[in-house]
## 1
Amino acid sequence: MKLLSIVLAGALALAACNGSGKKGKVNVPDSLATVKKDTPVVLNRILPDDSDVGVWKGAVFIYKNRGFELFSGGPAMGKKYAEVINMYSRLKIPGLKIYNLIIPNGFEFEVREKYKNKVRPAKEAINDVYAAEDPGIIKVNPVDDIRKHRTEYLYFNTDHHWTSLGAYYAYTSFCGAAGLTPVSLANVPSKVKPGFLGFFYRLTRAASLKANPDSVRYYLFPIHLIFISEVIQSGTGQNHICMPRRPAVITVIPFSCRETCRFAKWKRSIRMAGGLRS
């Protein structure tokens, strides 16, 4: 029997304070930028201190001419989230598989010694959520796989979402849990749209963010790859992926499909106090 799969993804997000931004140089990155061969990949969570100083502007923390939201969620929030995921598991739909992939935010991969007490470690928080979930739920923690590529362009400078490249590395984590072979980016042509200013810029109008705009890479999947959106009430015996209708999650969908991919539109978004959402 072919399986109906539900992929639940969450984002670890924010705490608010006050401050101001500072001006930086113009830099339009490429979302497929890779680490130079002579650039070491840092796997430690806490990075050495540098001379840059982060400042708050409203709810946005501006550091290195980039905007960030800082995760501050606690165990109670994680337990609430796990209860929602367990609710889907306990429907006991025949042939159903539930995957839960929780998305860390960008500052997790930029934490310096001087800021380590401002944010809770994402990997620890994610594992706490998974510990409260039913055993039958397949848990995917992408933090380590993403951290291996932390010097690449994984999260936007001016927006709270990850880039398509960041989504791709989380997708490879999902493939490992699902027993799938990841699509190679080398096999998918793409284009880049420069000059994007995202949500953090709209919130702050910070000159440093305006001077450090983003580029958006989008992939040109083959014309035989068909995406069909429909609402699924129960298992149908077809290849289905059911995902929350959120931008951070939808960026993973194209990589996850082969020829025909049907995905459900969630009527209700899961949002918990403290910054965990899906």
Note: The chain has eight helices and 13 strands.
## 2
Amino acid sequence: MLAALAGAGILAYVLLNNTGEQTSGSSGTSHSEAVTPKSGEPETVGNTRLVMSEARGEDPKFDYVVRARYEDESGDGYEIGIENDPGRTFEEDVADLTNPQTIGRWSCGTQYEMNVCMADDERGRVLLVPLDSDADLSTIAAWGDEFMEQLK
């Protein structure tokens, strides 16, 4: 498992590990608490709203352009990260997907037993991870499109 994680990129490792922890419980943020976007991300996307936003440089181990979590009223939602890592390419990330398929701008598939979607953007490499590990790839990609359209 560690060898696989080392090859998957830091962003995937962090998002997938954090999401795995979150699927068993609440994010710790009340749905009534306002969260201020720190990186230009929208406050709401579809029926989800921002419950966690991490500013660039807040975590010195990673070069996130955006790192955020969105949840709906039931606690389902998505975690999204956009990272600039000169030591890793988008093509390397996509090569790590099982059963890859292209849905619009997104390369989607399975990574660590979770459905995920990735995209290459001028801001960096985008990884979108649903909090529901069985989420449909088309649904993940559609949510990601809406997020990217609203990102400032």
Note: The radius of gyration is 14 Å.
